[in-house]
Design a protein that fits this description.
two-stranded antiparallel sheet; alpha/beta; Rossmann fold; eleven-stranded mixed sheet; 42% helix; globular; 594 residues
Length: 594
């Protein structure tokens, strides 16, 4: 495994993420390695192949030295083969015979007849055998190499499913016959459109045209009241005559457009807050280009959150601020809050973290992408353009759910000829953003790979980030099926901070849908528990057993918490802009359109 050179992706004269200087004689070698990695990444889709070769080789060596395991696999293979032959013999009679593996996509009745039930049963047996062969021993279940091996094996299995191919999928054959092949013509047209867009022709993703920013989404009235080279600060118009004294400042993640928190009126968190009497400010991040390659975490903390906080305090003077952070925006917010606390700054009234990690020791399924070799490969890819394109990030997340996010959509669009009917959340997801080289490299290496924030060695602007300094009231939200920020990882924030008024809430749903639940959601539930002493804590599984269960969205519970942690005396609603300072333009501003 090749360790990344910390300065290998830096352009001449640019500061490195850790401000160290490489040995002069190492520069040509590092540059050559970066170029070779970039060329290889173009063939592998950005994956570091040496990680997977090493994982496969180690698996093979272990298998070669364990005759008992070999005998088990041989016996299992014989049983699976015998089952496939016996099933084929029964199915040859012509009577409907289900393959009994609905979870693999064979639930339709068309799969119950010969020869398609044989294809499905044979594939299911083969997939089951491979999963058993690649499964690590219980003692090695947390081994990163075993996780990468299982990931690679799952990708191969899901790619080979008979449901993905026209000639082995009875549903596709029936549809093609019913439409006299017109579905295939539409599918080719869809493929050509997507290929042109990927080749650089540009244009919005199909179906997103009905969700235009500022017209259909991101429509809560407001103004851009501040702008620098990294952010625009939005202030939203009040919807009540009286408002809480303390304003709310939201820091979204910069790997997504901010309006995930201001989608349609029915599920806009911003609209919900202003209708409840809160003065709401939102950071809208600039979509970086090549010129922004050297923006790092220091700049995101200072020019992002701290500049926004200073502007909020200027416009709403003498009032502490309820700070809210989502995803890596919450991680950034925790860094800034720790710095403010260490300086004795009382600017913040409370801290809310939504699906945000501060301890990256258990990042869940994303761990397969967090290796020195993988980070070096990403740096090599970003070296030329200066940014990581949104398509690269989207592809990585799709690989984690390849059956649902890659193969099923491909079959539907290119064989069935059916474009998906998008909702507002899906349209937002297609509106991707880029990541500057330096910030992305720092984030992966220093937080995910080295876990510096949890270990107390992370620095911002030369100052150590000590999360124990955070003693203000905290409200932390995790989501049950989150594969970006697993809830048990989010839960670890409790042990790192020093708040004596700490609430952890776990909601149903995933990383995005669980947070964007709307104020009323019949399919949502949540658990919530509050500690009133800084030393109170529980193991995650024990917390799950003790925390009471509530039906419905978590939004009202959080809003009541904000109200309880605000001054009991309200004030007249504040005009957008406030304090005599003019607004720059109407929300949603220009950065969100970049």
């Amino acid at each position: 495994m090749t360790a990344p050179k910390k300065n290998s992706a830096a352009p001449p004269g640019a500061p490195s993420p850790d401000s160290s200087t490489p040995a002069p004689e190492a520069a040509p070698q590092a540059q050559l390695e970066r170029q070779l990695r970039a060329q290889l990444a173009a063939l592998t889709g950005g994956l570091a192949p040496d990680d997977y070769v090493e994982a496969w080789w180690e698996w093979y060596l272990k298998l070669a030295t364990h005759p008992h395991k070999q005998a088990q696999l041989a016996h299992s293979a014989y049983e699976k083969l015998l089952d496939s032959w016996q099933f084929m013999a029964r199915a040859a009679s012509g009577a409907p015979l289900p393959p009994e593996r609905e979870e693999l996509g064979f639930s339709d009745a068309a799969w119950n007849v010969w020869p398609f039930n044989v294809y499905a049963r044979t594939y299911a047996n083969w997939a089951s055998w491979w999963q058993h062969a690649l499964a690590p021993p219980a003692a090695a279940a947390a081994d990163p190499k075993a996780a990468r091996l299982g990931f690679a094996g799952r990708l191969l299995l899901e790619a080979a499913s008979p449901a993905n191919f026209l000639h082995t999928n009875p549903e596709l054959l029936e549809k093609t016959a019913a439409e006299s092949g017109h579905n295939l013509i539409r599918g080719v047209k869809n493929w050509l459109e997507d290929a042109q867009r990927m080749a650089g022709a540009g244009g919005p993703s199909p179906g997103t045209e009905q969700f235009q920013v500022g017209r259909d989404v991101a429509i809560t009235p407001g103004k851009v009241v501040f702008r620098n080279d990294l952010i625009e600060l939005l202030q939203y118009a009040p919807q009540t005559e009286q408002v809480f004294a303390e304003p709310v400042l939201i820091t979204p993640a910069w790997i997504m457009k901010y309006y995930i928190l201001d989608l349609s009126p029915r599920n806009s968190l911003v609209r919900f807050l202003v209708e409840k009497g809160h003065t709401v400010f939102m950071i809208s991040w600039k979509n970086p280009g090549a010129a922004d390659r050297n923006l790092g975490i220091d700049e995101y903390v200072q020019q992002g959150f701290l500049d926004a906080l200073n502007e909020v305090r200027r416009r709403v003077p003498r009032q502490p601020v309820h700070a809210v952070g989502y995803c890596i925006g919450g991680t950034l917010l925790a860094m800034a809050a720790a710095r403010l606390a260490a300086r004795g700054d009382t600017a913040l009234a409370s801290l809310t973290l939504l699906a945000a990690q501060t301890d990256f020791s258990e990042p869940g399924e994303l761990s397969v992408f967090i290796t020195p070799s993988q980070i070096a490969t990403l740096e090599a890819m970003m070296n030329k353009s200066g940014v990581l394109e949104s398509e690269r990030m989207g592809a990585a997340f799709a690989l984690l759910r390849s059956r649902d996010l890659m193969w099923a959509p491909a079959v539907n669009q290119y064989v069935r000829g059916e474009r998906p009917k998008l909702n507002d959340l899906m349209a937002w997801n297609a509106d991707g953003t880029r990541m500057p080289w330096r910030m992305h490299s720092e984030y992966l290496e220093r937080l995910y790979l080295k876990n510096e924030m949890a270990l107390g060695t992370f620095t911002v602007g030369g100052e150590r980030v000590d999360l124990k300094q955070i003693r203000i009231p905290m409200f932390v939200v995790g989501t049950e099926t989150d594969h970006v920020a697993p809830w048990r990882s989010v839960y670890k924030t409790r042990a790192l901070t020093g708040s004596s008024d700490y609430t952890f809430l776990l909601t149903s749903g995933g990383h995005n849908a669980g947070i964007v639940s709307g104020p009323v959601h019949p399919k949502r539930r949540h658990r919530m528990l509050t500690w009133t002493h800084a030393t109170d804590s529980l193991p995650a599984d024990e917390w799950m057993r003790q925390a009471p269960l509530f039906e419905g969205s978590w939004w009202p519970a959080w809003q009541r918490w904000l109200a309880q942690h605000s001054a009991q005396t309200t004030v007249p609603a504040r005009a957008v802009g406030g304090s005599g300072a003019a607004a720059l333009e109407d929300a949603p501003g220009r950065y969100v359109r970049g």
